[in-house]
Amino acid sequence: MVTISHSHNKRSVTSLEGHIIAATPLLNDSCFGRSVIYICVHNEDGAMGVIINHPHDLIGCNDLIESLHIRDAISVMPQIYNGGPVETDRGFILHSHDYHSSNTFSISEEICLTASVDLLQEIMVGKGPTQSIIALGYAGWAPGQLESEIGSNSWLIAPATCDLIFNTPNEQKWEKCTALSGQDISRFCPTVGYA
Length: 195
Description:
Layout: E1 4-5, E2 12-13, E3 19-23, E4 36-43, E5 46-51, H1 61-68, E6 80-82, E7 86-96, E8 104-106, E9 111-114, H2 117-124, E10 132-141, H3 145-151, E11 155-159, H4 162-167, H5 170-180
Parallel strand pairs: 6-10
Antiparallel strand pairs: 1-2, 3-4, 3-11, 4-5, 5-10, 7-9, 7-10, 8-9
């Protein structure tokens, strides 16, 4: 559950675990610009999430199939995402709740996270969960850092849905997420125009 208080114009967030955040136009760096992140962990130790709308530019499924020596790979391969700037050589699979292993972390009633080569191999041969996102790397925040960034209007908070995460085209996720946040995105414009 997320609670936001507006005392002294600062917002305080108790937990965003299981929610989505979208970068506002104020956050326009190359890694996080227009990114949508599913928050997997958010507590007093910090936060961790996976970017769900930035396909990986350099690594595709064929690269993973080759490096993992996977046989009998399915013909229609899933997309690989750039999950964030931390541990970019490590894979994280955000998926529907119909798959569990000893490496699976349940985030909500609908969504889990698994960091396992075994699950990656199952997905590549057409098994595993019905819905999934394969990401390399993750986004991480130190204690209080995400709260501070939200307070400085870098992120919008929106409810997470399986439809948004797994079924919405990547190029539409940011717009859909900003709309779900209930905020007027135009108020975050970083530049002022002159007539």
